[in-house]
Automatic annotation (TrEMBL):
<comment type="pathway">
    <text>Purine metabolism; urate degradation; (S)-allantoin from urate: step 3/3.</text>
</comment>
<feature type="domain" description="Oxo-4-hydroxy-4-carboxy-5-ureidoimidazoline decarboxylase">
    <location>
        <begin position="151"/>
        <end position="208"/>
    </location>
</feature>
<dbReference type="GO" id="GO:0019628">
    <property type="term" value="P:urate catabolic process"/>
</dbReference>
<keyword id="KW-0659">Purine metabolism</keyword>
<feature type="domain" description="Oxo-4-hydroxy-4-carboxy-5-ureidoimidazoline decarboxylase">
    <location>
        <begin position="224"/>
        <end position="289"/>
    </location>
</feature>
<dbReference type="InterPro" id="IPR036778">
    <property type="entry name" value="OHCU_decarboxylase_sf"/>
</dbReference>
<keyword id="KW-0210">Decarboxylase</keyword>
<keyword id="KW-0456">Lyase</keyword>
<feature type="compositionally biased region" description="Pro residues">
    <location>
        <begin position="77"/>
        <end position="94"/>
    </location>
</feature>
<feature type="compositionally biased region" description="Basic and acidic residues">
    <location>
        <begin position="1"/>
        <end position="11"/>
    </location>
</feature>
<dbReference type="InterPro" id="IPR018020">
    <property type="entry name" value="OHCU_decarboxylase"/>
</dbReference>
<dbReference type="GO" id="GO:0006144">
    <property type="term" value="P:purine nucleobase metabolic process"/>
</dbReference>
<dbReference type="GO" id="GO:0051997">
    <property type="term" value="F:2-oxo-4-hydroxy-4-carboxy-5-ureidoimidazoline decarboxylase activity"/>
</dbReference>
<dbReference type="Pfam" id="PF09349">
    <property type="entry name" value="OHCU_decarbox"/>
</dbReference>
<feature type="compositionally biased region" description="Pro residues">
    <location>
        <begin position="36"/>
        <end position="47"/>
    </location>
</feature>
<protein>
    <recommendedName>
        <fullName>2-oxo-4-hydroxy-4-carboxy-5-ureidoimidazoline decarboxylase</fullName>
        <ecNumber>4.1.1.97</ecNumber>
    </recommendedName>
</protein>
<feature type="compositionally biased region" description="Low complexity">
    <location>
        <begin position="119"/>
        <end position="140"/>
    </location>
</feature>
Length: 309
């Protein structure tokens, strides 16, 4: 059986003629799965455009000029670019260094002579502060020889120094009035002569200014107690302190020398003891003068304060 199509349809299909046998031979219609490529092969890849070389955009420079002021944007100054902080000037914590040694401040120079009370040459004053004077300048401002300082000291200052050696004011005025002394031996000779010429009142004044001999450090307390009791007995009998020169004795011999002297001289008569005390006082005064004018130290065997010339 043949199918006849209208002429218009046949014109569209051409000489194609369909029969039932041709229709029966066509394969059944199968729905296409879009997840699998079509049966005639993969689809061609889309064409890609060639990559264009783009030049890098220029980095905008920071604004360093003043923008024109306007009503909406007032005039402003662009902040300067951040700058690096300077490295610390001190030592690095990773590399510790020893601290710099600073010289210790020198002792301030004396403004007045302790003996004369007069201003020293070149000493700073309160109105005109000056730099610290080195030790050489201060030493040059006063005589280096203690005897020379004693000879050039004012009369009142010299008498005060002599009263630290002997408590008689008349003796101190007489020795000070005969200055200057060319040598230490001349000073000692004048001091002995003035001591021999002291009157009874001068001797009483000098003995009343004396104090009991002291003991060296480290002496047991029992020794101090025995010395105090012995001196109390001597003071009750003669009315003044026990005087003895210990300048030539060793410190460990002082206790025996003082206790033995007090026991032996307690039996003396008052006048006899005055003569013995006057002689010991002259020797003590002589030893004190030697220590003062020769810079040998303090006063040996006695608790009287030493006075620097």
């Amino acid at each position: 059986m043949k199918l006849r199509l209208p002429s218009e349809i046949r014109k569209g299909f051409g000489p194609l003629s369909l029969t039932l046998g041709n229709l029966a031979s066509l394969p059944p219609h199968v729905p296409h799965d879009f997840r699998t490529p079509p049966p005639h092969g993969p689809a061609p890849a889309p064409a890609t455009r060639p990559a264009r070389h783009r030049a890098p955009r220029p980095t905008p420079r920071p604004a360093t000029h003043l923008s024109r002021p306007s009503a909406r944007h007032p005039q402003s100054v662009a902040p300067p670019p951040p700058s690096r902080a300077p490295p610390p000037s001190g030592p690095s914590p990773l590399h510790p260094q020893s601290a710099p040694i600073t010289p210790s401040p020198e002792e301030p120079p004396l403004s007045r002579d302790p003996l004369t009370g007069e201003p020293l040459t070149g000493a700073p004053t309160a109105s005109a502060p000056t730099a610290a004077i080195p030790g050489q300048t201060r030493a040059a401002a006063r005589p280096a020889d203690p005897l020379a300082r004693f000879n050039t000291a004012p009369e009142a200052a010299a008498e005060a120094v002599l009263l630290a050696c002997c408590g008689s004011r008349r003796w101190a005025r007489r020795v000070a009035a005969h200055r200057p002394y060319p040598t230490v031996e001349a000073l000692l000779a004048a001091a002995d002569e003035a001591a021999y010429d002291m009157s009874g009142a001068d001797l009483d004044e000098a003995l009343g200014d004396e104090t009991p001999p002291g003991l060296p450090p480290g002496t047991p307390w029992s020794a101090h107690t025995a010395l105090r009791h012995a001196h109390e007995a001597y003071l009750a009998r003669f009315g003044h302190a026990f005087v003895v020169c210990l300048d030539t004795d060793r410190p460990e011999e002082h206790l025996d020398r003082v206790l033995g002297g007090i026991r032996s001289r307690l039996d003396n008569e008052p006048e006899e003891e005055r003569v013995a005390s006057a002689e010991e006082l002259r020797r003590v005064t002589r030893a004190r003068l030697i220590h003062l004018v020769t810079e040998k130290g303090g006063l040996t065997g006695y608790s009287r304060p030493s006075v620097a010339v």
